[in-house]
Each structure stands twice: as structure tokens, then as C-alpha cells.
Design a protein that fits this description.
The complex is a heterodimer. Chain A is an all-beta fold. Chain A has strands spanning 5-7, 10-13, 19-24, 31-37, 43-50, 53-57, 65-68, 75-79, 88-95, 105-106, 110-114. By secondary structure, chain B is mainly beta. Chain B has a five-stranded mixed sheet, with no helix packed on it. A four-stranded antiparallel sheet of chain B has the order 2-7-6-5, with no helix packed on it. Classes of the chains: A mainly beta, B mainly beta.
């Protein structure tokens, strides 16, 4: 069964450094998402992306965050100047369509640790 | 966004059925009811969804109340691998366009005893 893959599985970065989290969505999916989960807390929506544009972003997704689909297969989340509070699991997801009966398929996440 | 209410935790014995309840009294007519689960150290996983009628798939069954104000996820025969956090999520259409985002609550933590 096709799956969403994320790399790296664990990223350790010094505060203030830039980090790029990578995702390969399911090949025929057109809609992409990033979520994050701080340890012990709820999964939180960050951003949705379609047709090379952000469709929606949450309040968490401020100017230090950006997303890109640099080629036909990858979908990346960049954090420009990391803060301690950015430490979390980051999950990428994809779906065929936005419609509210379409499931989203998640990767197993990247654990981001900011020192 | 319409909200859901789930018990914080439930326990089950292995190989027995599990009924996970969800209340969504403010559900609108166009809200689909989705269930996801999150196994330890993994990303959320789609389980099942429905609108009005009961639904079955290889993972579970979804029973939806006639007034749609509640639903129940049914695992017919729990295994140790089913120990996870189960999320009941309403997918709504906002202002005529679907934003696509999932809004996760705290979910129900299911423990399965051998």
C-alpha cells in the first residue's frame, strides 16, 4: 500500500538554525498538509497546500515557517530560525482531494529537537 | 468548527469487541464523521468515516445515531496492536469551501489487556 514517507526521522538542531523537514506524499495525491504534535499534546494543523500555493495556515504558521514543493515528489517544511518551542513531532499528510469525505494519509513524522 | 466529546480512556480485553463512543451534538448536515487513530510513536492513521449510514471496512465499523448527534467506532475483536489513541473528527465545509484541515481533540486512549 502506498505511504507517505518523511525524512529524517529525528533532527537535532541548535536554536536559531534553519531546518528543513522533508516529505514524499503519495504519488497521485494533490493536497498536502503539515501538522505538529508537541510531546503530550494534541496534533495541531499547521498548513495545507495545493497547486503550489498555501490553501490555509494556522496561527502557529508564522513568518518563520515556509513550505515548498521543489519538484514533483517532495514537499518540504522549512523553519528559518528555530526556537526551543519548535521542538515537536512534525507530521506530513496528503490526500487526493480536499473534500470532507477524503481521508488524509500521514507519515510517521520527524522528531525535531531544538537545543 | 463542530466539536466532539470522547472519553479520555477505555480498557478492553484482547479478542473482545470494543465500542468507542463520540458525541457531536452540534454536528451540521454536511459534516462527515471521521475516525483516526495514533499508535505509539506513529503518525495518525485513517480508520473509517461516514455521513449518515453505518459503515464497515476491514479495520472497523462505524455506527451513527439516527439524529447524527453521536457515533460509535466498533472494533470487533481487539488485538494488542489496537492499543492507540482514537480520534473522532468532524470534517466540515466552511463558507462553501473545504479547507481540508483536520482538527484533533485529545481522543480516547484505548488500552488492550492480554
Amino acid at each position: 500500500e502506498p505511504e507517505v514517507t518523511q525524512t529524517p526521522s529525528h533532527q537535532v538542531t541548535q536554536m536559531g538554525q534553519e531546518v528543513i523537514l522533508r516529505c514524499v506524499p503519495i504519488s497521485n495525491h494533490l493536497y498536502f498538509y503539515w501538522y505538529r504534535q508537541i510531546l503530550g499534546q494534541k496534533v495541531e494543523f499547521l498548513v495545507s497546500f495545493y497547486n503550489n500555493e498555501i490553501s490555509e495556515k494556522s496561527e502557529i504558521f508564522d513568518d518563520q515557517f515556509s513550505v515548498e514543493r521543489p519538484d514533483g515528489s517532495n514537499f518540504t517544511l522549512k523553519i528559518r530560525s528555530t526556537k526551543l518551542e519548535d521542538s515537536a513531532m512534525y507530521f506530513c499528510a496528503s490526500s487526493e482531494r480536499f473534500h470532507n469525505n477524503q481521508p488524509q494519509h500521514f507519515g510517521d513524522g520527524t522528531r525535531l529537537s531544538i537545543l | 468548527d463542530a466539536k466532539t466529546t470522547q472519553p479520555n480512556s477505555m480498557e478492553s480485553n484482547e479478542e473482545e469487541p470494543v465500542h468507542l463512543p463520540c458525541n457531536h451534538s452540534t454536528i451540521s448536515g454536511t459534516d462527515y464523521i471521521h475516525w483516526y487513530r495514533q499508535l505509539p510513536s506513529q503518525g495518525p492513521e485513517y480508520v473509517i468515516h461516514g455521513l449518515t449510514s453505518n459503515v464497515n471496512n476491514r479495520m472497523a465499523s462505524l455506527a451513527i445515531a439516527e439524529d447524527r448527534k453521536s457515533s460509535t467506532l466498533i472494533l470487533h475483536r481487539a488485538t494488542l496492536r489496537d492499543a492507540a489513541v482514537y480520534y473522532c473528527i468532524l470534517r466540515d465545509v466552511e463558507g462553501g469551501s473545504n479547507t481540508g484541515k483536520l482538527i484533533f481533540g485529545q481522543g480516547t486512549t484505548l488500552q488492550v489487556k492480554p
